[in-house]
Structure formats: structure tokens, C-alpha cells
Design brief:
It is a single chain. The chain has helices at about 15, 25-35, 75-95, and strands spanning about 45-50, 55-60, 100-110, 120-125, 135-145, 150-165. With about 170 residues, the chain is an alpha+beta fold. The chain has a six-stranded antiparallel β-sheet with strand order 1-2-4-5-6-3.
Length: about 170
């Protein structure tokens, strides 16, 4: 017997929290929803400082679990911050209830050790691409800085946006 379960992949957390009038509370609820829906991020403590169609800012507190062997932020943590901010910026514009958003390429340049509080800022492209035949590719760039505004890393990502109706599922 097969049960009809709610397809959590197609619920848009940004739309879900949009009606919360208090911006601080909205961001905190979105933090919790995203932590539950993306378990890989759970231990890193990412929080939204700003979320909108034009720009998303994610902050990361200093945590032992994100450290590398020399006490800085691990390279994978920095890459994940860059991916997370960029993906949420795209999701804010297109929504994920009608589209699947998946990363196709990630390229990151590390400029210095990331220590203390870190901040990842992804800005919208000058023009959002119009999906053709239910699909589009979107290039994003995220700048990661430390609390002294030192440039820690630059993360470039390429995303595939595809209508759910065109996604083959097993």
C-alpha cells in the first residue's frame, strides 16, 4: 500500500514564511525551516541576515564544527555558504514550488583564512534569465567576508532551473 505523502521538495519555504509581518521573526522561522529541510547545513549554524530577490546575506558564527586543522573555516564550509546564499537568492526570485533548482557547477577562490563571524552575500544577476522550454541556467557569484570585511573567498556557481513537470523522477 502506498501512502500519499506531502512532497516537501515542492513546498516553497520563502512563500511559506512571507506572511510573517515581523522581519526578524520571519528570518528566524526561515532559518529553522531550512535547517530541517537541508540537514547537511544543520551543524554550521547558518542564519539569514537579509533575504530578498535582489540579494541574500547568510552569516555563520564561529563554531568548532566548521573549523579546519589550522583553526579557520573549512574550505567546504565556505563553499557551502556561497552555494546556500546564491541558491536562496534564485529561489527568492523564481520560487521552488514550481521549479527544481540544482547546482551544476561550483568554483571557489580562497583569498585568506576565514575566522570569526563570516558573511556570504549573493546578489541577483543584472537580468534574470527567462526559462525556455521550462529550463534556464543561472550564473551567480557570492562574496564571503569576515567580520573586518576582509575578503575570504569568492564562490561562483551555475544553477539549473527546471519546471517540476519536466523533471524525471523514479
Amino acid at each position: 500500500m502506498k501512502f500519499a505523502l506531502l512532497d516537501l521538495k515542492k513546498i516553497d519555504p520563502i512563500k511559506l514564511t512571507a506572511r510573517i509581518p515581523n522581519e526578524t521573526l520571519r528570518k528566524r522561522v526561515l532559518d529553522v525551516v531550512m535547517t530541517v529541510s537541508v540537514p547537511f547545513n544543520r551543524w554550521l549554524g547558518f542564519r539569514f541576515e537579509r533575504i530578498g530577490e535582489d540579494r541574500v546575506v547568510v552569516i555563520s558564527p564561529p563554531r568548532r564544527l566548521r573549523e579546519n586543522h589550522v583553526g579557520g573555516a573549512h574550505a567546504c564550509c565556505l563553499a557551502l555558504m556561497g552555494e546556500y546564499a546564491a541558491g536562496m537568492c534564485i529561489a527568492s526570485h523564481y520560487g521552488i514550488d514550481g521549479h527544481r533548482l540544482i547546482i551544476g557547477k561550483l568554483d571557489i577562490d580562497y583569498h585568506k583564512q576565514g575566522r570569526g563571524w563570516l558573511r556570504a552575500e549573493a546578489s541577483a544577476p543584472t537580468a534574470w534569465p527567462e526559462p525556455r522550454d521550462g529550463e534556464a541556467w543561472i550564473d551567480m557569484e557570492t562574496r564571503i567576508t569576515d567580520s573586518k570585511d576582509g575578503h575570504v573567498a569568492t564562490c561562483k556557481t551555475k544553477w539549473q532551473l527546471k519546471d517540476w513537470s519536466r523533471v524525471r523522477e523514479k
